[in-house]
Structure formats: structure tokens, C-alpha cells
Amino acid sequence: MTLALSGRIVATLFLASSLSFAAPAPAAAKAPFPAEGVWRGEFTIDGDPIPFNFEVKGKRAQDATFTLLNGSRTDRFKVTPRDDGTFSVRMNTYDAVLEGKVSDDGKHLVGQYKDLVPSRNGARNLAFTAEHDAAWRFVKPGQDEAPAADLSGKWAVQTIDKAARQDKRNQVALLKQEGNHLSGVFMTVVGDTRELEGTVQGNRFYLSGFSGPSPLLIRGTIDEDGNIQGAFGSGIYNVVKFEAEKSDKVELPDPYKLTFLKDGQDRIDFSFPDLQGKQVSLQDDKYRGKVVIVEVIGTWCPNCTDQTYFLAPWFKQNHHRGVEAVAVAFEQEDNFDYFQKTLTTFKDYFDIRYDIVFGGIADKKVATEKLKGLNYMAAFPTTIIIGRDGKVREIYTGYTGTVTGEYHKDYVTRFNSLLDGLIAEPDPYAASAATPATAASLAVAP
């Protein structure tokens, strides 16, 4: 058996179609629609396949849903009907769409992922094909090779610099293997890969993931000592090699200590336009005496999306307790109109009830310069928690999604504990809300 695979990509995907009903004339048949059930798709990059799975439900485009499948993770997208026999699936809040055609029998697809960011002009478009009734990912049923090892466990991962062959950065992988089936996640200081799914075949292993914005492929080998070596990519960028060994004690650098305030500073400040073009500042009366959550995000960022899945409903449940929040978005275009379009979609999709403002182009150096007070913006997302006195109390770099298990639970527990404590603190500006007469008497008191 040969599995010709490599690298990894960034993009986004998926499905749809339309129904064309004509007058009851024999020649006017409706456009074919993808058959219901599980499918196997495949991107081809430089001749190498990147597999993914999805499920179609609904016999008509108007009723259909398209769901990407990655282990226990599911991401659902809506189908947009078209009248020309093609299908289209918008990637929810990501600025990309899948377009293509379905075969007459409804069991084969061919199309293209289209990147809709204007300045890239389609440079990241990807071709794909897909077949119906194929739930396998890397190996067809009946063709498995007995695995040489069980990769279940926690792994200390080191990426390797190509030129100097030096350790570049730490990662932690959490893997689970059942027979040939392999699943798991790779965590870095800036976030995680979301859930990956794949296989172990002999002394080789393969993992892939596609959840909307970022198709990902990881492949590697198992050596005689049970350690692994492999390669993965980051978006459409160069392939990165890695080595790993099992370790129950390995941990990432503390995400609460990576980004911090400059010496002598105890707060941050900014003034950015919101979706209506109105300037928003942390000095505004709206935030005075409130606990404030500042979320630095980008709609292009998968971990930012996962963070918003957590924060948007949390805010709706806790806003009445004296909490405000503001999302500062750094986008793929340094253009207010583009921000307004993409973030309006983002706001509506997540039902966000807090302010969203435009920070500028998606660049860590730009974000560092504009968020006055920070030493360096190490990652999108970054969460900044501010007390009622306006002082920064905590900064968290990245986001650990639900697939990370105890890491995510620990994050949520610490977040809630900190917010509960800050909310319980008295408002130091409460005296300023006194009546004019009271305020005057206080001003002249000896």
C-alpha cells in the first residue's frame, strides 16, 4: 500500500447546489444534487492528496446542510441554491466559498475552493474532488496494515529549523489510537490545530483536518524506540519537520506570561472605529467602573472563532453583573469597508452583544503598536482582562479549544474564577455617580 502524502495547506471548503424546476417539459430536468450521506473529499496540492470527510443532509438545496467531520468535531455550513446547476457553500464567517458541479447521479463532485479576500485575487484557490458513500479517510476498508505501535498519549514535540537543525519551538500533541484509527490535537503557544483524524499503518502515521478555514496534513514515521518524526505545514507556507517523544510531564510555556505590560504600565489604551464608524475607547463612560474583557481577534483565525464560541454566550449570561467586552479585530484587508462587511457577518453569526472595533491589518507588529502598553502581541487571539479600576489584571495568549480536554477545562475554571473575583470588587468610581449637591459638598469638605 502506498500513501503519497505531504505538507499542509490553508483554505476552506464546502458544498451546495440548487434546484431548477421548469415547466413539465421532458427536456427540463432539475439540476443534480449531491446524494445524502457521508462523502470523502480530496484536495490535491503539488500532486499529493489531502483527504477530508463530510456529510450531506437534505435532498434539496433549500433544505440541505453540509457538515465537515473531524473525529468528534462537526462544523455545519448552509447550502446556497443556484440556478445554473452548480453548487456553492459559503464558509460561514471565513471569507471563502466552495463552488463546483455534481455528477448526474449525484455521487461525484468536482470543484474549487475560492479565497474571497480581494487583495489575494484568488491566489489561494484549491481544486478538489469528492465521492459519495466513502467514510474512510486514508485507507480503504480491508487494506489496513497492522500498526507497529500505539501512539496514544501525550507527546513532547520539537519543530526543527531546516538550516541550523535547531529546536525552533515547543509543541504538545495529545493522541488517541484505537486499532488503526488515530485522532488527536497538536497544541502550540498560540493555539491548537483543532481535532485531527487519521490512521497508523505499520510504522507510518497520517493525520488530517479540515473544519472550514484550514485543511491540514501531518505525516510521519515511528522509529524502533517508539519515538516519531514527521512533517506538517502552516497554511500554505513551507513544510515544517518535527520530532517527538512521549512525555507525561511536558508542558507549553505559560500562556499567562507570554504577553505582558511594559515596565511602569498597569493599563492599555486604544481608540478604534466600531461597525458604525464611531470611535470606541476604553476611556468611554460605558467601560468606567466595569470589568472589561478585551479580545484581540481576526475573522480569518480558527482559534479566534473557537474563542468567540465561548465568549459570546458567556457575555450574554454575565453582562448584567457589571461586565463589558470589546473585540478588537485585525483583518486581512486594511480597509474599513472590508472590516464592516466581514465583522457584520461575524457578529450576526455568533450573536455578539459586545462592541467590535477595527484595529487594522492582521499583523502582530501592527497590533503591538496600536494596543499601547503591551510588550508584544504574540498571538491571535489574545485575551486581556481589566478590573473595575481600569488596570490590567491578566493577559492570556492563544486559546485552547474543547479538544484539548483538561487544558480547556482549566482555562474555563480559571477564567470564571478570575471574573467572579473582579466582579465582586467595589466600583472605585461609584462616588462620581453621587447627586450634584452631594458631589459639591464632598468637593469642599475639609
Automatic annotation (TrEMBL):
Keyword flag Signal: yes
Pfam families: AhpC-TSA (PF00578)
Protein name: Peroxiredoxin
InterPro entries: AhpC/TSA, Thioredoxin-like_sf, Thioredoxin_domain, Thioredoxin_ResA/DsbE_sf
Domain Thioredoxin: 261-417
GO molecular-function terms, A-Z: antioxidant activity; oxidoreductase activity
UniProt key word Signal: yes
